[in-house]
Amino acid sequence: MIELIPAIDIINGQCVRLTKGDYDQKTVYGSPLDMALEFERIGYQRLHVVDLDGAKSKHIVNSDVLSQLTAETRLTVDFGGGIKTDEDMEIAFNHGASMVTIGSIAVTEPDRFLGWLDKYGSERIILGADVRNGRISINGWKEDSTEDLLPFLKKYIDAGVNKVLCTEISKDGTLAGPAIDLYKKVMETYPQLHLIASGGVSSIDDIKALDAAGIPAVVFGKAIYEGKINLQELWDWQNA
Question: Is 177 left (phi over 0), alpha (psi -120 to 50) or beta?
C-alpha cells in the first residue's frame, strides 16, 4: 500500500502553496502547526516540510517552525529547502527533522552530498529530484541544470541512496494529476527504489492510480488545502 505523506510548504512562518514553483503564484493557508495537528489527529504519521524561504535564500530560514512541528506533534518530519552547508544539516536535525531532502547540492556539489550520505546514512537522506522538461531543476526551481533524470538517479543509487522524492514541476500545484508515466519509468528502471511521487495530485483517485502503478509513496499538499481530498476518507481507504 502506498505511503501517504501530506506536505506543508512554509513562507514567512505560514503554510502556503505555490503553482509550478512560482513564488508570485502563492496562496496562504494559515498555521503550519494547526495543519500538522489535524494530520496527526486523523492518524497520519509522516509529514513533508519545505522551507520555501530557505530554498530562495539558500540557507534554512524557518527552523523555528520546524522546531514547533517536531516538538508539538509525534509526526516523523522530513525537511527540505535551503540546506546548503554542514551547518544547515545540523540545524535541520537539531530542530527535530528525522530526515532531510537534498536536491540542489546533489547537482552543484556532489562530493558534499556524498559526504553527508556517508555521515548521516541513507535512512536519513532523501535525494530530491525536481524535474522540468526531463532535467533536474535547482535552487528553488529557479534554474534548470544539465542533469537528465535517470542518469542522475543512477549515480546516487549506486552510491547508496534508496529514497528519492521526485517532483514533476510542471504538475506541481496545478491539481492536474500526477506524472504517473514518469514515475512508472523510474520504477521500471530502478525497482529497488523507495520513490516518493510529488506534484499534481488532485484527488483520492490520483493516489489510487499511483498505488495501482506500484509507486511506493506520495507527497500531496494543495489538494488538501483546496478541499479536493478528504483526509479522513483517504486514511479510511488506506486502512480499510
Answer: left
Amino acid at 133: N
Residue 111 is among the residues annotated as catalytic for this protein: no
Of the residues 130, 172, 206, 211, only one is catalytic, namely: 130
Grid cell for residue 40 = 496527526
CA 59/CA 86 separation, integer angstroms: 11
- What's the whole-model pTM score? 0.94
Q: Is 130 a catalytic residue?
A: yes
Question: What is the C-alpha to C-alpha distance for residues 148 and 100, in angstroms, rounded to an integer?
Answer: 22
DSSP string, 47-65: EEEEEHHHHHHTS---HHH
Contact 165/196 with Cβ under 8 angstroms?
A: yes
> Which residues on adjacent β-strands are paired with residue 126?
101
Query: Which cell is 130 given?
Result: 525536481
- Select which of 9, 53, 88, 172 is catalytic: 9
Cβ neighbours of residue 121 closer than 8 Å, sequence gap 6 or more: none
pLDDT tens figures, 165-214: 999 888 877 888 999 999 999 999 999 999 999 999 999 999 999 999 99
Task: With beta carbons less than 8 A apart as the criterion, state whether 88 and 59 touch.
Answer: yes
- The CA–CA distances, whole Å, from 140 to 18, 86, 120, 151 equal 11, 19, 23, 21
Summarised one tens digit per residue, pLDDT across range 69-84 is 999 999 999 999 999 9
Q: List, in order, residues 6 or more apart from 157 with CB less than 8 Å away.
A: 190, 192, 193
Pairing of strands 76-80, 46-51: parallel
CA distance readout (Å), 229 to 80, 197, 236:
24, 17, 12
